[in-house]
């Protein structure tokens, strides 16, 4: 863009833009200006191409990112859902631990209840045995009383106790004879 202005300035020794002439003493300044302008303008096309290439690359990247935007949105949504699920899992794990602790206590209580039940069953059997023996004793007492009445009615004055003493005396006599 500046090449034609530079060329015109060098040919006519005046400013290509405002048409003002350079004096001879300013020739050196003019040449320095032209040299600086040349150096400044030499890199512009290269830089312009680099910038245009960078713009194209950035536009391609923007287009690719724009295509990925729905996937990015889904990813962010999934991350949020995963966080919520992790929080839920942590809550469920705490609840599980609490329930396992409670189950342990209930198991211990069940064992204690089973032991108490076994003791109660043993006591119940003992009580049934005592009740049965008591019934037998009562039945035998009634029979003895009946027999004693029958004996009294027949005129004999001997009681069961008397008979037992007599049996014991006979047993003692027999042991003395055996010795």
First and last CA, distance: 156 Å
> Which structural class should the secondary elements be placed in?
mainly alpha
Give the amount of beta strand, in percent: under 5%
Radius of gyration (Å): 63 Å
- How would a crystallographer describe the biggest sheet? none
Give the rounded overall mean pLDDT.
85
- Unreliable segments of 5+ consecutive residues: none
Number of strands: 0
Shape annotation: rod-shaped
Which bin fits the share of residues in helices? over 70%
Following the backbone from N to C, one meets helices and strands in this order, namely HHH
- Treating each run of at least 4 consecutive H or I residues as one helix, how many helices? 3
Question: Which characteristics define this entry?
Answer:
rod-shaped; 0% strand; single chain; 179 residues; mainly alpha; 3 helices
Structure, described:
The chain contains three helices and no strands. It has 179 residues and is mostly helical. It is rod-shaped, with a radius of gyration of 63 Å. The termini are far apart. The model has no long low-confidence stretch (mean pLDDT 85).
In short:
This protein has three helices and no strands. With 179 residues, it is mostly helical.
Lay out the secondary structure.
Elements: H1 3-12, H2 27-154, H3 160-178
């Amino acid at each position: 863009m500046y090449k034609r202005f530079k060329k015109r300035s060098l040919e006519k020794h005046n400013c290509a833009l405002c048409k003002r002439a350079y004096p001879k003493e300013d020739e050196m300044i003019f040449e320095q200006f032209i040299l600086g302008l040349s150096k400044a303008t030499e890199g512009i096309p290269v830089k312009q191409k680099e910038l245009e290439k960078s713009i194209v690359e950035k536009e391609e990247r923007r287009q690719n990112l724009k295509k990925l935007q729905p996937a990015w949105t889904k990813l962010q949504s999934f991350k949020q859902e995963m966080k919520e699920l992790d929080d839920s899992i942590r809550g469920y794990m705490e609840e599980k631990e609490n329930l396992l602790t409670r189950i342990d206590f209930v198991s211990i209580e069940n064992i204690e209840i089973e032991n108490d039940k076994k003791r109660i069953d043993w006591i119940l059997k003992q009580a049934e045995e005592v009740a049965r023996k008591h019934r037998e004793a009562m039945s035998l007492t009634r029979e003895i009383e009946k027999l004693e009445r029958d004996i009294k009615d027949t005129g004999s004055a001997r009681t069961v106790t008397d008979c037992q003493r007599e049996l014991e005396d006979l047993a003692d006599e027999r042991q003395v004879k055996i010795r």
